[in-house]
Write a structure and sequence with these properties.
about 45% helix, five-stranded antiparallel sheet, rod-shaped, five-stranded mixed sheet, alpha+beta
């Protein structure tokens, strides 16, 4: 439907604007859009009235089949203005047709007649201007609301992105915490393994007895690292390639020198060869580790796991422990071998004490019970060409085979020097020169005492050795602590002096080494006092009758509180008292390590 108005005056413009508003309302145009359309057309009409002339306002309404209503307004300038080239002004508004849109096409009548006052028309158009201002403000607010809506949308997107980042950071943090806990657990397990390995190594290397090492291995490993432990040691005559009751994996471990794993499933252990289960133990896995040494394998350590299988790190630790156990066993066996040689040599060199009229002799030698128990302690007794009896006791520094060999050389040299005669001091001086020339880095201590049954004089000399102890016939005990010479073999020229002491019948002289009297916590002086007290507790008749038994009874209290980490020598010389029946009976002999104090 089309309708046209001629616009010449304000009243014409007001009537056209009212008709436009009513038509838009009847057509169902939304109120805001209706107000904007009316405000826009009113503004154009006021511009037309300013320019003057007769303008034509054409309104055309239509409806599409899609249910959309359309309002088209055209404002045509006067004919002379059109000739100047001013184009018509037009505006089109479309909107979805509502239920009351059936009125589109019916144009309402003019709202006012010719009698409408111009003031009313001016007010109407001014109201449209105010409406336009309000609508502009409303448009600004709509733009502001749209801007804030977009900001809110962007903020929401940022919040969502932040939540996503926080969630990812939380997952990363949880993963980092889990990795840290796993690393801490692994480090703690590694620390436990290293601590166990260090403690177990200290236990194994603390002993020089291979049987004790074999006994301690199961105690260390069961039940934490193994359910069962078997240690197979073979001697030189054992042939691991021959028939054996041990698992085949153990035999292969000896042949190849590599650890072997025998089970019905692969072990996956580093440095270990996998094999089928053992016929001797088909239901349990076996780890067979060779006990290697520098020369040849000593045997095999065979273990079964405490659970289903071993952790690879535990297996590596067990292999390292087996290596250290092999070294400890090898050291123990080498120590035992050297100890046996030294002990055999020491026993072979123990002097058979001579039988001398008017004198009784008793000697004791006890090896140490800890460590390399053969040292350089020695004693000797022999007669000089003039009938005098030389008694000597000494101590070579160090332990083991070397000390025993040097002791034998000193003993032989002393006997050779004594053939030419000479006092104890002279003999020690020559022995000092001999030792310094033979072994400049080896030292020794010694005491030499010379007695003669027919002479009431004791001559003695000492070189860095504990002083002799003399029991007088009346039971009193004296320590012969005259100034001794320096140790034998030190880089010092010395002439060792002789000392003399009157020796009455019934007197007993005790020569000894420091292992008998010295204690780490007390020193040597309290031990010498205890020896003097023990010797003084005997009666003359008891010493005269049984000097051998007296030697045992002296050792018993002196060694009862000692761990005996050094060997011990004791030599007793008793001058017979002819007033006691049987005193003229000579006696002599010795008891070595195999017959010593119990």
């Amino acid at each position: 439907m089309t309708r046209t108005w001629r616009i010449t005056t304000v009243t014409d413009a007001a009537r056209a604007r009212i008709a436009l508003a009513r038509l838009a309302a009847v057509s169902g145009l939304p109120a805001v859009e209706r107000a904007r359309l009316a405000s826009t057309v009113s503004g154009r009409l006021r511009q037309c009235l300013t320019k003057g002339g007769t303008w034509l306002l054409t309104l055309d309404t239509s409806r599409s089949t899609a249910g959309t209503a359309r309002l088209h307004a055209v404002l045509t300038p006067p004919a002379d203005a059109g000739a100047d080239g001013e184009p018509p002004w037009e505006v089109t508004v479309s909107w979805p047709e509502a239920g009351g849109a059936s009125a589109v096409g019916s144009v309402p009548a003019d709202p006012a007649g010719p009698a409408d006052p111009p003031a009313l028309a001016e007010a109407l158009l001014g109201a449209d201007e105010d409406t336009a201002v309000v609508l502009d403000k409303l448009a600004e607010q709509e733009e502001l609301v749209a801007f804030h809506r977009e900001e809110l949308h962007q903020t929401n997107q940022g919040v969502l992105a932040l939540h996503a980042e926080l969630d990812a950071a939380g997952r990363a943090q949880r993963e980092a915490f889990a990795a840290e806990r796993a690393a801490r657990t692994e480090a703690e397990n590694a620390r436990h393994r290293l601590t166990f390995l260090a403690d177990a190594s200290a236990v194994l290397t603390a002993s020089l007895n291979h049987e004790e090492i074999v006994r301690r291995l199961p105690e260390l490993l069961v039940p934490t690292y193994a359910r069962d432990v078997d240690v197979w040691l073979f001697d030189d005559e054992d042939d691991p390639r021959g028939p054996t009751s041990h698992p085949a994996a153990a035999v292969r471990a000896v042949r190849t020198g590599r650890p072997q794993y025998a089970a019905d499933h692969p072990g996956g252990l580093p440095g270990v060869d996998d094999h089928p289960p053992s016929a001797l133990s088909p239901t349990r896995p076996l780890l067979c580790v060779p006990l290697l040494t520098r020369r040849a394998p000593l045997g095999v350590l065979t273990l079964s796991p405490p659970g289903e299988r071993w952790d690879p790190d535990d297996a590596v630790m067990l292999i390292e422990l087996a290596r250290r156990a092999g070294i400890a066993l090898d050291n123990a066996r080498r120590f035992e071998h050297n100890r046996d040689i030294a002990e055999t040599l020491q026993r072979a060199l123990l002097t058979e004490l001579p039988a001398t009229p008017g004198l009784s002799l008793a000697a004791r030698y006890l090896p140490a019970t800890h460590g390399l128990n053969i040292g350089g302690d020695w004693y000797d007794a022999f007669r000089q060409p003039d009938g005098s009896l030389i008694t000597v006791i000494g101590d070579v520094t160090g332990h083991g085979l070397h000390a025993a060999v040097m002791m034998s050389q000193l003993r032989t040299a002393l006997r050779a020097y004594a053939v030419d005669g000479g006092s104890p001091g002279r003999l020690l001086t020559r022995l000092h020169r001999f030792l310094h020339h033979l072994q400049p880095d080896l030292y020794a201590t010694a005491v030499i005492a010379r007695l003669h049954p027919d002479e009431p004089t004791l001559t003695w000399a000492a070189a860095g050795h504990p002083p002799p102890v003399l029991r007088l016939p009346d039971g009193r005990v004296r320590t012969l602590d005259a100034k001794p010479g320096a140790m034998l073999g030190i880089p010092l020229r010395q002439d060792i002096a002789d000392h003399t002491e009157r020796l009455e019948p019934g007197s007993t002289l005790a020569l000894y080494t420091d292992g008998l009297v010295e204690r780490r916590a007390q020193g040597i002086d309290p031990g010498i006092e205890r020896l003097a007290a023990a010797l003084g507790s005997f009666g003359s008749r008891e010493l005269e009758a049984d000097l051998e038994g007296s030697a045992d009874r002296i050792l018993r209290p002196l060694l009862s509180d000692s761990e005996r980490d050094d060997d011990v020598c004791l030599l007793l010389c008793h001058l017979h008292d002819r007033s006691i029946p049987g005193a003229l009976r000579p006696s002599g002999g010795h008891r070595g390590a195999e017959q010593g104090h119990e």
